[in-house]
Design goal:
Length: 84
Amino acid sequence: MTTKSSISLKYAPATDMLYIQLANGTSTESEEVSPGVVVDYDEHNRAVGIEIEDASKFMDMSRLELSAMPIVNLVINERMAVVR
């Protein structure tokens, strides 16, 4: 039986980088699929992550919206203070 991995979003404010981890595993190859968007692949050519450079230029990092997701557990590891 294969264990499914959970999706994880990690944001690094110092570099304005958003990483979306799609699966457990080690990246063995990466491909820039669009300017500033890199997809990481494992040894079986499965996408394991997506890296978005300059993330705040493309999306509102202060809001996360989930639609029709069958979420059982929502884990928030760290909350950053928003300075306005």
